[in-house]
Amino acid sequence: MSVLEGSWKHEYITSNGIRLHYVTQGEGPLMLMLHGFPEFWYSWRHLIPEFAKDFKVVALDLRGYNESDKPKEQSAYVMAEFIEDVKGVIQGLGYDKCVLVGHDWGGAIAWNFAYAYPEMLDKLIVLNIPHPAKFAEGFRTPQQLLRSSYIFFFQIPGLPELLLQAGDYQAIETALKGMAVNKNAFTNEDIEAYKDAASKRGALTATLNYYRNVTQQRVLSLDWSVLQVPTLMIWGEKDTALGKELTYGTEEYVKDFTIKYIPTSSHWVQQEQPQLVIQYMREFLTARN
Predict the structure, then answer these.
(1) Which one is catalytic: 42, 65, 194, 211?
(2) Which of 170 and 220 is assigned the larger pLDDT?
(3) pLDDT at site 1
(4) Which of 52, 66, 217, 228 satisfies CB 3.0 to 4.6 Å to 61 for a cystine?
(5) Is 267 annotated in the active site?
(6) Domains and their CATH numbers in the chain
(7) Whole-structure pTM over 0.85, yes or no?
(8) What is the predicted pLDDT for the residue at 145?
(9) Dist. CA 147–CA 53, nearest whole Å
């Protein structure tokens, strides 16, 4: 059986004018999961069955990724569109609110969605992505600029696509397994699944367009109010792309803020340390309910 098949179901939904793919399992309140780069819904494979015990879990392929639509225009990959994608999915599934879980780019979208539509969230959970105000501060430091240098490379037309494709998408394996503390977190089948998703027609350019529109993604803005949505941040401390210092002071921007550090994990925290992530999420979700 393919690693893409499991206890979940594959579905499609039209939201904000585009067709999005997702997998779903369970019934109950909605838990919506948003992945990062260079991933797809599969990055949540360890968490989906666990939280399906209590929620209708929906793990989305973001626009441009895997089986979701890939609009050709670069202008289609801006935060305002991502936010409306999420809103349309929640409403299209018949809900008025959810627990929103996001990692990496999915986390950046989750932060922005929480500010745009706080009334549509019960709770917010972000993994290895800083609050946008803290990211903006970090982006003004030499150490974070160095860690984020790949973003500048991604601005070059065409060349990043060629690099990512080279050697049967070796760069995908290097990004995932190469950065991981626990190399066994990614099996050969996992890596093949990620390569297959990246190799879908139009996917590489679509996913790189998230970075090519970075000035329009509100990740460099400093003007943020205090968020009222209860928020959990989980952070793998061995993240080579985003420094731990980006988490410091987040409580200034979130009224009800909880942070859990995982010292034995890289950026890919829910894949390297799924049991700890599940434990911290459960503790947060059951608190003050």
Answers:
(1) 211
(2) 170
(3) 73
(4) 66
(5) yes
(6) 9-286 (3.40.50.1820)
(7) yes
(8) 87
(9) 38
